[in-house]
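Issue 218. Parser rejects a valid record. Input:
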Amino acid sequence: MEQQPAQTQSQSQTQGPPPKRQPVFVTADQLLPSTHGHNLKLKVVSSNVVVEKTRTDGTKIRIAEAVVGDQTGVITLTARNKQIDVVQPGNSIIARNAKIDMYKGFMRLAVDKWGKLELASDTFDFDVNTANDRS
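Output the parser choked on:
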């Protein structure tokens, strides 16, 4: 068995960071309870603010539930604070590193601090399948 020469510090500095992988997008019908790391391309069907409170320190908390989906089905997305501005009906959004939380026995899609919820640069050309509700 041959030993590889140890990599010097100068060699590791010139290589730089490894290239980023392209995201793998899944569809709404592939979502399962208590899973995470999902990337989805979705359209917002409807949005409803369910909680709007002011904490004792003066900060405001806003939570909304939005029905989002793609050509395979719909799911309820729980949006918090600034995410509510993104999930307006008719918008095309991209959810990166999303997770599935269970709430009263139903699945909820959520994007926490490790994920990203953003408007898509162009609108998606699929029709949302509201008949298949995954929530």
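Fixed in the parser; the record now loads. The helical segments are 9-15, 83-86.
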